[in-house]
Amino acid sequence: MKTTLIITTYNWKEALKVVLESVKHQTILPNEVIVADDGSREDTKLLIEEMAQNFPVALIHSWQIDDGFRAAQSRNRAIAKSSGDYIIIIDGDIVLPQNFIADHLKNAKKEQFIQGGRVLLNQKLTHNLILEGKLPSIFSKGIKNRKNMISSEIFSAVFSKISNTDKSTRSCNMSFWREDILEINGFNNDFVGWGREDSEFVHRMLNAGKTRLYLKFAGVGYHLYHNENSRASLAQNDEILEKTIQQHLKRCENGVDQFISGTGDE
Questions:
Q1: What pTM was computed for the model?
Q2: Element holding 119 (H helix, E strand)
Q3: Which of 132, 211, 222, 239 is spaced 20 to 30 Å from 97 by Cα?
Q4: Which of 123, 252, 101, 121 is nearest to 190 (CA)?
Q5: Starting from the edge strand earliest in sequence, which strands make up the sheet with 173-177, in order?
Q6: Share of the chain above pLDDT 70, in %
């Protein structure tokens, strides 16, 4: 099974560098890493080019024009470039413990996708992590969701569960089969601005008969502190989500297929 790790980013190369460094130290490496760039400046491109020279696997830069927050479209462009059978997506502010990829792959099953958890770091811990590249200990001050730092096969087997809702959906840590993504036509490009593109994606996956595993005590990501994105587009995005729920949609019209076919290139 070939695995692709997709990392979203936008104009925060310092965080992206730490995330990419954490990928290099995985106990099981992905076969390729694709940075889904939502229109960052030239310095992000230069960082990726520099790191690609000695990165342990293929490191690919997928870039689109900066035209507002378009995470859905950015992910779709990266998915179209991917060659993995199984795809893991994280945000460019999620630093990975060494077993992250291994935990996702260990729990990968057909007709199932995974929602992973996160540990929230405060501003001071984030600053230290970016400077030193070392994850905090479970005893460090400034951590939320501290219990998520516990990595245990036994606890994970007991507390991980099938949760076929969009509750606690976070696209900063998810994984799924590429064939399942293509079946529902990926993320919905109609989403512009922060919010709900991941929940709508989950609903279409569930409508298509896939199950969602809520993974606990494994596959966690460490979330770097940053200011929240604007919620100005939530009302518009909520309408798209509600349409998918009410009409029990399995597939979006404006999705990943246009980038696979090449008709959506900018």
A1: 0.95
A2: strand 118-121
A3: 211
A4: 252
A5: 58-63, 32-37, 3-9, 86-91, 173-177, 112-115, 211-214, 161-162
A6: 98
